[in-house]
Specification:
heterodimer, A: alpha+beta, B: 40% helix, rod-shaped, disordered N terminus
Chain lengths: 117, 562
């Protein structure tokens, strides 16, 4: 698993199989500054680290409030990694790229490994 | 009952919790959040759930339960023990339960966020069932799940503001913290109403207590009130009638003993009065109270008897020996016995159970036999009994308390009187003299009516109770055989006196007769004397006449001779 992830960290990875497919869902509430920032940050991180292996679904809870309970949404914005399992939640505007990568298990939770820009 | 209090001040939402609405004069502040705090296991969740369930079932106010600790299944299982069908209410759309799971290990925080998601969830649930009530249990769990306390605080402040804005009556529960009411100082944000729950163990008996720490814009009871959680929910036990403003009745009810009724001016007791029957063991306290029960049931009134030393069966059997058939009242359902050992519960629990039983059965006569069996700290005992008397009075229930203490006090070393709470005090006393024991009865006080000040001897037989005027005379008060002996002596003396007087009467007659006889004799002799006198007078006249004749004759003869 960790091997795959280290490959995934490689921008020129050719392994686009299903196990590496990232299904991400970003919960926002309207076009707030934090929400917009989160979406922009997420897109940037994904393009850098998961190019071609991700899809992002944006859920606006103002339009679909009934969806909030299902994914145990509390904070806004919340990024939920639906796939690969297990389910992961990252809250905040995703401004700290390092933490986003760790949170999405793109990079192992290891401070000795220096992050890429 | 407290409607005049509620209308004057801010609008309130009734919780439907027995007693709590009385203490707060109407319930929690409507349309505002209230904080319910206390240590673990003191009933916060239950309090909040009761508030919601009652809102949904009694007051047509649907509610949202947002749980941060228990899952929805656990919650409904837990409150099912109180008879709440949470699942049914959820299915009926009267209650919505939302479990908010906050697991720190699953959440990564990167950058700024707010709790808009929570607002949306709550708002959605509220809108779906058109909720008027909200419970957040226990929102402080968020502080364990999320690390940015500053954000949380500002968001909570916003949440409480939001609740107020939406006009939702909310209960926010909080765990008791060190040196403050809640761990995170929620009381700073929820400032309208704060209720503190407590669970204390004293003398191995647990008593739950509730205190209203603050209630902005409303009067409220400030004491610590005991409360009770059992299979029938929560009851808070307020000193209901602190202002002593219950209605009084002029109606007279019988004590069930005719001659005892006669000792009271109006011929009985006022309905709704509290009667203390005190006396040492075996003086007939229970028997008198059994008579009162029988009399009331015979009139078709409901009676409830709380017995602490005997079973109901035993009382029925014993009453049979004085000619009372209490069983038939049990059969018709007019009479109910509630027997429990005094040590079974704490004082408060006893009171609470009585309170509830009385609410359900709605008796017009209540007997507590004996009240002296209740044990507890002196002060608490008095407070409890005071509440008990208040509760009965407020309902216009005639109450008969029996007590083993002959001086009308509660405990062994106190002069705090039970008697001062009572309207009528009947004292039974043993009088031991001449090797026998007899029972006497006094009426020590009877508020608002004249009553006999005399001692009565009180007899129990198969024909029932009977009061006999005790002998009161120069030799003191006598009862029992001594009274009978004394009465016999008096009878003998009276006979003697009667005989004496008859004898004297006879003497006088005799004397009178003898005098009359003497008078007759004298009159006889007088008559004799008169006769003699007449006789003598006649003789004298004859003699004179004869002499005259003779003298004339002689004279004539003399002249002839010349």
């Amino acid at each position: 698993m960790s091997e795959q992830i280290s490959h995934a960290g490689d921008p020129i990875s050719e392994e686009d199989g299903d196990p590496g497919q990232y299904h991400l869902r970003l919960y926002v509430a309207g076009q707030t500054q934090k929400s917009m920032a989160a979406l922009a940050n997420l897109k940037r991180v994904c393009e850098q680290h998961l190019a071609g292996r991700y899809d992002i679904e944006v859920v606006d809870l103002l339009k679909n409030p009934q969806l909030a309970a299902g994914d145990q949404i509390l904070a806004i914005p919340t990024l939920v990694r639906r796939l690969p399992a297990p389910l992961k939640r990252i809250i905040g505007d995703l401004s700290n790229t390092e933490k986003v990568l760790v949170g999405l298990d793109i990079r192992p939770r290891d401070p000795s490994a220096p992050g890429k820009p | 009952m407290t409607s005049e209090h509620t209308t004057a001040s801010l609008p309130k939402a009734r919780t439907g919790i027995d007693g709590f609405d009385d203490v707060t004069f109407g319930g929690l502040p409507a349309g505002r959040p209230s904080l319910v705090c206390g240590a673990a296991g003191c009933g916060k969740t239950l309090f909040a759930t009761t508030f919601l369930v009652n809102g949904a079932t009694l007051y047509d106010e649907p509610g949202v339960f947002m749980s941060f600790e228990e899952r929805a299944d656990d919650l409904s299982a837990n409150v099912a023990s109180l008879g709440y069908d949470l699942d049914g209410l959820v299915a009926a759309g009267k209650i919505a339960v939302d479990h908010v799971k906050v697991e720190r290990s699953e959440i990564e925080e990167t950058g700024e966020y707010d709790l808009e998601g929570l607002f949306i969830r709550l708002g959605y649930a509220v809108d779906t069932i058109k909720a008027k009530r909200v419970v957040l249990d226990t929102i402080e769990t968020l502080f364990a799940g999320l690390s940015d306390a500053a954000v949380l605080r500002s968001e909570l402040r916003r949440l409480f503001g939001w609740l107020k804005e939406r006009g939702l009556t909310a209960i926010i529960t909080g765990e008791r913290g060190e040196g403050q009411l809640t761990r995170q100082g929620l009381e700073e944000y929820v400032s309208d109403c704060v209720v503190l729950l407590d669970n204390r163990v004293e003398d191995q008996i647990t008593t739950r207590r509730l205190r209203i720490v603050k209630y902005r814009g409303s009067a409220h009871g400030t004491n610590e009130y005991p409360f009770l959680i059992d299979e029938q929910g929560i009851s808070v036990l307020p000193v209901t009638a602190a202002d002593l403003s219950y209605k009084v009745s002029d109606e007279i009810v019988s004590t069930g003993v005719e001659s005892l009724d006669a000792m009271f001016g109006p011929g009985g007791l006022f309905r709704g009065s509290s009667v203390l029957i005190s006396g040492s063991a075996g003086t007939g306290k229970t028997t008198i109270s059994s008579h009162t029960i029988d009399a009331a049931c015979a009139h078709g009134e409901r009676c409830m008897s709380f017995v602490f030393e005997e079973s109901g069966e035993q009382i029925c059997r014993n009453a049979h020996s004085v000619g009372l058939d209490l069983r038939r009242h049990l059969d018709t359902g007019l009479l109910r016995f509630e027997a429990a050992r005094p040590s079974l519960y704490g004082l408060e629990m006893h009171l609470a159970r009585m309170h509830r039983d009385i609410e359900q059965f709605r008796p017009s006569v209540v007997v507590i036999d004996p009240i002296s069996a209740l044990r507890g700290p002196e002060v608490e005992l008095q407070a409890t009994l005071l509440r008990m008397v208040d509760m009965l009075k407020a309902r216009g229930i005639t109450a008969v308390f029996t007590s083993l203490r002959t001086d009308g006090a509660f405990g062994q070393s106190s002069d705090l009187g039970l008697s001062s709470l009572m309207d009528v005090w009947i004292k039974l006393q043993d009088v031991e003299a001449n090797g026998e024991r007899s029972r006497t009865l006094y009426v020590i006080k009877a508020r608002g009516m004249s009553h006999s000040n005399q001692v009565r001897e009180f007899q129990m037989s198969a024909a029932g109770l009977k009061l006999v005027d005790a002998y009161i005379g120069p030799a003191g008060v006598l009862t029992g055989t001594a009274r009978i002996v004394q009465e016999a002596q008096e009878e003998a003396a009276a006979l003697r006196r009667q005989q004496d007087s008859e004898r004297r009467k006879r003497d006088v007659t005799r004397r009178r007769q003898s005098i009359e006889r003497q008078i007759a004799e004298l009159r006889d002799s007088l008559e004799t004397a008169e006769e003699e006198e007449t006789l003598l007078l006649d003789e004298d006249t004859q003699r004179e006449t004869l002499l005259t004749i003779e003298r004339t004759d002689i004279a004539r003869r003399r002249s002839a001779a010349e």
